[in-house]
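REQUEST FORM: STRUCTURE PREDICTION
Request ID: SP-0412
Submitted by: Lab K.M.
Chain count: 1
Length (residues): 111
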Amino acid sequence: MPAIPQSMEKGGYCVPFADRTLKCADCGTSFVFSMSEQEFFASKGYQNEPKRCPSCRDTRRQTRGEAPARQMYDAVCAECGVQTKVPFRPSGTRPVYCSNCFSEQRAGALR
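STATUS: Completed
RESULT:
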């Protein structure tokens, strides 16, 4: 006897899982949200269906966590005089420290 597909509660009644064709929000191509994927989503408690095709999901996973490069500005450390780069535009009204001197300043302030 073939297995009966799992069902999911939707609006107070059970809807059997079946392959569905969805449109990717990123690239616009159609992709199949398979019965087994729907069962997996339901087992994890996910309420929404995927917005992206598998290719766009993989691309998004690979680029996640990669922040865009910050603009760095040249500065001279107020403590040791070494040339350094900082992630903000020095205004000249406050001292700027290299990473070593900044760490020492911070450690001294915490004592």
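NOTES: The chain is about 30% helix and 20% strand.
Reviewed by: T.R.
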